Amino acid sequence: MTRERRRGVLSIDEGTTGTRAAVVLDDGGAAPPAYLPLSVRSPDHLRVEQDATEIWANTVEVCRQALDWAAAHRVEITGVSISTQRATVLLWDTVTGCPLSQAVVWQDRRYAARLREWEPEWDARLVEHTGRPVGSRAPLLWAAEEVAGNAAARRARDEGRLAFGSVDTWLVWKLTGGARHVMSATNAVAAGAYDLRTGDWHEPWVEFLGCPRDVLPEIVDDDGDFGATDPAVLGVRLPILSVMGDQHAAMIALGAHRPGQATTVHGTGTFLDAVAGDRPPVHRRQVPGVLTLVGWRSRGTSVFSLEGYASTTGSAMRWLCEEIGLFDSPAQLAALAREHTGPSRVMFLPALAGLRTPAWSPEATGVLAGLSLSTTRAELARGVLDGFAHSVCDLLEGVEEVMGRQVTDLFCGGGLASSDVLMSAQADLIGRPVRRALGHETASLRGVAYLGGVRAGLWPSVSAAVAGLQAAPVFEPTLSEAERLEARAAWRDLLARHIITAGPGARPPGPGSRGPKPDAQEESTS
């Protein structure tokens, strides 16, 4: 009997530290991903860079491996979907197809001091139009500086062959053989100059930063017109069905589709995203680091979200293991943390690239406190994971303060979410259940494929794609309310003692709480 041929989407997940590709099948599951690591360099304490040529080479290789898997398993590929790290940008020559600079990674803070000077004039205006203040990075300012100071970039611009974009722009341009110079809405909003109301570049900020308008890509829906792959690249012509920022793709795969639902994704950094509705939400209070974003933009309609993030959690764990050598590997750290029962006196603040929430302090550095002669490696490991959990609490409290309501469901994913200790610590410190989605390691891969698969007819909706997956296991809190409040108070005290370089945008950490009561105020949007 002839086996029925299945259908699927070739999905790419280009993260900060690695590139994956896998076939996402029509039952919602993903085939084993092909994976290659990526290099990340920090020439000094402010700059973080990558090689765009390495990103492209990795992408081609993992895609070919995934296509080979599809051929071997008789899976018909209906198209390509791409999830990428956000706000990592580069310039390239459209004639040679070569990068003209290192890619500047989203963790980069080289302009933080200069940008702070512009906060009084621009913060209120930018929050109204773009959903975010000036912040600590400005990709379009970097582009303007490169055009002014990089002779090759200036020459390419003068000759009309200079292109600027984020990683999604770069990959789509390369995959289509240079046919499409575009950026998806969820990636554009992360560049800091996306007008939430018009869905295009916010011209006053672009002009102020000095970025040449003609080098910017066209902004399109996340399931918009991205063209098709050039057969010379992957050996086959396939429509590019969807392109999303990785955190937004994870929201779809983990099940956060309705207002009030949220996800926590532990990757290089930890991101907490809550669905806010079909209009940009009014910020009931200005909370440092909590931004309004496009959750996803499909068929001309946007779903908005609120996001807070800690930029160095997974990368802090890697730093502890690979650079400092306190642990052999993240897996060993997680295993040791299980051996320490009860609370840890050790507290780790993973602010290795500044702090955003609950205080705005780009200059802040990490802290490892509470050490004594009795401290064991197991207690140290537990303190590291507890520090990540406290960071999640800070993000959740900030997002809820802006929304004026509690998050109803919190779904967790990302590599660090594999740790039961971390999931339990999150539940304990939040005082509410958290859900670890099954298959969370492939959330970004699957989420962007679900959006693209709806366009290709594999599913009637993204909710239908997720509906067939198994229910997420739940971690319930075990701490008493008094113990929870005591732990949060100790954490706030650590922050208050450490954040002594906080600038005008910072505020001292406030009292911990479960957040506003769900019925305290009705949801309001502008």
From TrEMBL:
Transmembrane segments: none annotated. InterPro entries: ATPase_NBD (IPR043129), Carb_kinase_FGGY (IPR000577), FGGY_C (IPR018485), FGGY_N (IPR018484). GO terms for molecular function: kinase activity. Residues 501-526 are annotated as: Disordered. The keyword Transferase applies. It holds the Pfam family FGGY_C. Residues 264-454 form the Carbohydrate kinase FGGY C-terminal domain. The keyword Transferase applies. Keywords: ATP-binding, Kinase, Nucleotide-binding, Transferase. Residues 9-252 form the Carbohydrate kinase FGGY N-terminal domain. It comes from the Bacteria. Belongs to the FGGY kinase family. PANTHER family: GLYCEROL KINASE (PTHR10196:SF69), SUGAR KINASE (PTHR10196). This is FGGY family carbohydrate kinase. It comes from Nonomuraea mangrovi. The lineage of its organism: Bacteria, Bacillati, Actinomycetota, Actinomycetes, Streptosporangiales.
